[in-house]
């Protein structure tokens, strides 16, 4: 019983340390507490829950740790020290079992109280985007939670090795004309944004630390989360589930701008898509007309051999693509020594086309998913070259590739 | 008989009667073919330490790559292969065999048995484990797996991991799994059937209790992981689609099966550690364990609840909401028996006469380290908080605090504690204390700061990171700590090698232990015990010592009486 005052002073020390540490946690975000700053209610809720557990954790850690240190220093073996042969103490044992249980009950209760703030999306504010679409991509029984008044902006987040693609919901049923972006998501402030998170290859995990928790993109499933940012700014994050060699570089960011700016951005994106669609349609019509004419005028004649297309044209297509018809430049994804490109989204052509016939090269361009090089995924390369390149353009490209790689 | 035949003597000729015993075989072949639980135990430990060195070098390479932001020391491929091998090695090839090795050596001795129940099966376990290690490291010759020790599908499917590294990982899990399963059966049967006379369940040493519980956990969980990797194998090579979402399979199936094994695995690693601590603390506090029954109940409770909380590793995947709550509350429940144990251990020392040999120091290091690991577990069990912390360096720090704090430090304590029994020689205490200080200090420097790295937004398993939010500083601290830790472990290896040759002779009972292994010489003879004493309490050696004291006193009194 001589240890009573010592015990009290230890208890006092613990309370003091805990009292000092809890506000310190707020001051040193990142060292002791999660990142914050976006002002989204779910992240704030998680943070306050974290801080509560942190405070209790400190009390337990320094309490038990203090008791341990006290025991070790007080009861070290010395001359005449006699170990007291105690086998246990039922009252004490029941006491700390109940004590531990009570702490956990406390944490559970606070968790349940905070859950509404963390889980359920709130209404968009009055100064948010005036007419957010509540159309969504979700199908099937599971739907994202939407705010009580139904006004939210839904964005489809698609994880793929190794980038994020964001597609913005709109009101029509055509999913091909939606505004989309890669890596950086632009969103309006004060507006509830719901995310439908999916993956097209392996598992990824959507995480922007300042905007709340992470949600895995699991192929075959759709996961949901939301945020409502009050502070304009750029919030960075990255994929949090191992997805392959490029996992570390699979970054994401959310750029929050005022609703007015957002509307401008959205309109410009939409206009660009509409005009590109139009150009493609015109080009398609022209091609169809030309083919029809060719069929009509010379149905059987083996046709005057088409003017041999210079390999140089092929190189131009390789490097620059045909923007008018939506044919993306090969060189922006593939490395080719002759053209001086070094991108690594697709396989290096000097390697994979080596020794291939012209017909094989052509097939690889037209049907990119038929043969996939080892280590690369399907559905990365556009499959639109059959329509976005004219036949002479295609031949020129194949000729160029054949000569650049195989010297033919 | 050419000597003269003497007339029959009337006085008895003093002679030593020896039961004929074949000389103990020596040479490497006798080790390879041994079915002696002690030799198998030592081979387990030696092999485990070889893998510890390999896994440790992998860890140091990982830390070197992460020492500075945007480092280009290792390629992403090498880095991914390294953390996959590090995790797999430390779990399957270091810790599990290290525990099995110590248990193999000590459990039959502690319960007063001559050997394990199935000695040949025991040898099979050892060689299957070594085969697993060779098959796994064979993949170094082509290209090792890059999917982490969890090998999540579909990343581990052929479409995304075409190399055979994943296959060698699968075979490792199969071989080590069968090894552990057979070993668990052996331990279970040994403990239930071969205890010394008088050793009822209330007198079984706590380490033996934890090994019994661990054996049950292994028997429950190993078949599940074996099934899971078999499905992965058929997915990869025989055209099935169990985990392939494009053909109706489910990646979540893998996660459920993996963690149904993976979470009990955590207790498979730490429960024996708890057992070792429960043996060492009473011996060096010179007090009985505080609340024997409560500790046994807590062990069983942790095992039962521990098999029902696996999905807390999956809080961020799409799961029905009520499951999140179920697994959160279930995980909280595990914290209660664990907390109970920590108090029991502290109170075992309370009002004792505590001595501080290296074994005890490691046990205390265990207490402090595991305490923090347990507390950070509460953060992760709370699913909204886990949404923020999941798959970050906070989690890396947490599981190193629990696994290294809970299992590795306990096994180090066990090694220093039982080394005299195994070899007949004491380890060097001074070198041991330096090694302990470096190991514990290095560990805390390495991993405490990793909590902050995680809170600052650093996900795990990234080969590079940008220098934002002080990540560069945190990681540099962590890397420095890891080399201090490695130096500490290296000193223990040097200590072992030196002490084998030059250590002081230990004698049968250098620590004044409580349990039966200290009743027999060090190292014990092949048959362990010539006579097995009757067990009357949890601390049979205390009873024996008291009895000897009493006899001495009676003898002295008799002598005094005779002399007067």
Give me the secondary-structure topology.
The complex is a heterodimer of chains A (408) and B (564).
Chain A lengths: L3 H24 L13 H34 L15 H30 L33 E8 L2 E6 L11 E3 L1 E5 L4 E7 L4 E3 L8 E3 L5 E5 L5 E6 L12 E7 L1 H39 L13 H10 L14 E2 L4 E2 L6 H4 L5 H9 L18 H4 L2 H16 L2
Parallel strand pairs in A: 1-5, 4-10
Antiparallel strand pairs in A: 1-2, 2-3, 5-8, 6-7, 9-10, 11-12
Helix pairs in contact in A: 1-2, 2-3, 5-9, 7-9
Chain B lengths: L27 H5 L4 H30 L9 H35 L8 H20 L26 H29 L12 H32 L13 H35 L6 H15 L14 H29 L8 H24 L1 H7 L3 H31 L5 H27 L15 H32 L37 H24 L1
Helix pairs in contact in B: 2-3, 2-4, 2-14, 3-4, 3-5, 3-7, 3-12, 4-5, 5-6, 6-7, 6-8, 7-8, 7-9, 7-10, 7-12, 8-9, 9-10, 10-12, 10-13, 12-13, 13-14
Molecular structure report:
The complex is a heterodimer of chains A (408) and B (564). Chain A is an alpha+beta fold. Chain A folds into three domains: 4-72 and 92-119; 122-300, Immunoglobulin-like (Sandwich), CATH 2.60.40; 305-406, Cytochrome c-like domain (Cytochrome Bc1 Complex, Chain D, domain 2, Orthogonal Bundle). Helix content of chain A is 42%, strand content 14%. Chain A is built from nine helices and twelve strands. In chain A, a hairpin with a 4-residue loop joins β11 and β12. In chain A, α1 packs antiparallel against α2 (41-74) and α7 (358-366) crosses α9. The radius of gyration of chain A is 32 Å and the shape is elongated. The termini of chain A are far apart. Chain B is an all-alpha fold and 564 residues long. Chain B has a single domain, classed as Cytochrome c oxidase-like, subunit I domain (Cytochrome C Oxidase, Chain A, Up-down Bundle). Chain B starts with 27 loop residues before the first helix and ends with a helix. Residues 1-6 of chain B have low confidence and may be disordered. Classes of the chains: A alpha+beta (408), B mainly alpha (564). The interface between A and B is large, with 88 and 86 residues.
């Amino acid at each position: 019983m001589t240890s009573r005052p010592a015990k009290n002073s230890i208890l006092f020390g613990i309370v003091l340390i805990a009292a000092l540490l809890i506000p310190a946690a707020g001051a040193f975000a990142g060292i002791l507490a999660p990142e914050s700053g976006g002002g989204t209610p779910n992240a704030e809720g998680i943070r306050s829950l974290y801080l509560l557990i942190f405070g209790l954790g400190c009390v337990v850690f320094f309490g038990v740790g203090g008791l341990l240190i006290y025991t070790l220093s007080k009861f070290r073996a010395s001359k005449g020290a006699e170990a007291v042969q105690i086998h246990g103490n039922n009252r004490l044992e029941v006491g700390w079992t109940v004590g531990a249980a009570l702490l956990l009950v406390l944490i559970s209760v606070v968790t349940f109280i905070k859950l509404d703030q963390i889980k359920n999306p709130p209404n968009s504010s009055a100064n948010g985007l005036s007419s957010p679409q509540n159309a969504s991509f979700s199908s099937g029984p599971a739907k994202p939670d939407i705010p009580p008044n139904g006004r939210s902006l839904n964005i489809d987040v698609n994880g793929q090795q190794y980038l994020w693609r964001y597609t913005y919901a709109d009101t029509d049923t055509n999913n091909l004309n939606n505004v989309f972006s890669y890596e950086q998501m632009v969103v309006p402030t004060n507006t509830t944004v719901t995310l439908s998170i999916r993956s097209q290859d392996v598992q990824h995990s959507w995480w922007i630390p300042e905007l709340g928790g992470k949600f895995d993109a699991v192929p075959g499933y759709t996961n949901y989360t939301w945020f409502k940012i009050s502070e304009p700014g750029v919030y960075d994050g990255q994929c949090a589930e191992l997805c392959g060699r490029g996992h570390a570089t699979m970054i994401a960011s959310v750029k929050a701008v005022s609703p007015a700016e957002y509307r401008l951005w959205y309109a410009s994106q939409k206009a660009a898509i509409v005009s590109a669609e139009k150009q493609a349609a015109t080009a398609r019509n022209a091609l169809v007309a030309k083919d029809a004419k060719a069929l009509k005028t010379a149905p059987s004649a083996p046709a005057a051999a088409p003017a041999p297309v210079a390999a140089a044209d092929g190189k131009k297509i390789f490097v620059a693509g045909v923007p008018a018809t939506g044919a993306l430049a090969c060189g922006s994804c593939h490395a080719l020594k002759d053209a001086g490109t070094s991108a690594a989204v697709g396989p290096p052509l000097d390697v994979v086309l080596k020794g291939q016939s012209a017909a094989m090269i052509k097939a690889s361009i037209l049907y990119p998913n038929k043969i996939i090089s080892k280590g690369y995924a399907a559905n990365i390369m556009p499959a639109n070259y059959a329509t976005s390149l004219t036949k002479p353009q295609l031949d020129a490209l194949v000729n160029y590739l054949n000569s650049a790689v195989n010297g033919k | 008989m050419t000597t003269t035949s003497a007339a029959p003597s009337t006085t008895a000729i003093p002679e030593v009667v020896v039961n004929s015993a074949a000389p103990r075989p020596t040479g490497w072949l006798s080790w390879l073919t041994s079915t002696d639980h002690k030799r198998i135990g030592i081979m387990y430990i030696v092999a485990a330490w070889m893998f510890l060195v390999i896994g440790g070098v992998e860890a140091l390479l990982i830390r070197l790559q992460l020492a500075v932001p945007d480092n280009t020391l290792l390629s992403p491929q090498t880095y991914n292969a390294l953390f996959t091998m590090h995790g797999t090695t430390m779990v399957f090839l270091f810790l599990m065999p290290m525990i099995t090795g110590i248990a193999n050596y000590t459990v039959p001795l502690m319960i007063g048995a001559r050997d394990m129940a199935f000695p040949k099966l025991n040898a099979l376990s050892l060689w299957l484990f070594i085969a697993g290690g060779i098959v796994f490291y064979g993949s170094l010759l082509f290209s090792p797996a890059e999917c982490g020790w969890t090998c999540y599908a579909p990343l581990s499917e052929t479409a995304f991991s075409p190399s055979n590294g994943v296959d060698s990982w699968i075979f490792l899990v199969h071989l080590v799994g069968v090894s552990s399963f057979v070993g668990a059966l052996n331990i279970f049967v040994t403990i239930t059937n071969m205890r010394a006379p008088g050793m009822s369940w209330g007198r079984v040493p706590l380490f033996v209790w934890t090994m019994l519980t661990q054996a049950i956990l292994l028997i429950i969980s190993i078949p599940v992981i074996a099934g899971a990797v078999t499905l992965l194998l058929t997915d990869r090579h025989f055209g099935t689609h169990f985990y392939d979402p494009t053909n109706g399979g489910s990646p979540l199936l893998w996660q459920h099966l993996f963690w149904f094994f993976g979470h009990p695995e955590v207790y498979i690693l730490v429960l024996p550690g708890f057992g070792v601590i429960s043996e060492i603390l009473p011996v060096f506090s010179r007090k009985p364990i505080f609340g024997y029954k409560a500790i046994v109940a807590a062990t069983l409770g942790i095992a039962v609840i521990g098999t029902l909380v696996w999905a807390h590793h999956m809080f961020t995947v799409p799961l029905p909401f009520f499951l999140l709550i179920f697994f959160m509350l279930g995980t909280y429940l595990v914290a209660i028996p664990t907390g109970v144990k920590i108090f029991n251990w502290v109170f075992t020392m309370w009002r004792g006469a505590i001595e501080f040999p290296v074994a005890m120091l490691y046990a205390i290091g265990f207490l402090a380290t595991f305490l923090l690991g347990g507390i950070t577990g509460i953060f992760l069990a709370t699913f909204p908080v886990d949404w923020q912390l999941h798959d970050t360096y906070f989690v890396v720090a947490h599981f190193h605090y629990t696994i290294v704090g809970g299992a590795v430090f306990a096994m180090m304590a066990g090694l220093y504690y039982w080394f005299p029994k195994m070899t007949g020689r004491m380890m060097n205490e001074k070198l041991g204390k330096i090694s302990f200080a470096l190991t514990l200090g290095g560990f805390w420097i390495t991993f405490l700061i990793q909590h902050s790295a995680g809170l600052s937004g650093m996900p795990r398993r990234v080969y590079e990171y940008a220098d934002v939010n002080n990540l560069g500083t945190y990681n540099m601290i962590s890397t420095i700590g890891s080399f201090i830790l490695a130096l500490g472990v290296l000193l223990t290896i040097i200590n072992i090698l030196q002490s084998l040759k030059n250590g002081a002779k230990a004698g049968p009972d250098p620590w004044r232990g409580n349990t039966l292994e200290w009743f027999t010489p060090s190292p014990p003879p092949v048959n362990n015990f010539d006579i097995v004493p009757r067990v009357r309490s949890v601390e049979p050696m205390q009873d024996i010592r008291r009895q000897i004291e009493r006899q001495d006193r009676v003898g002295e009194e008799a002598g005094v009486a005779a002399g007067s």
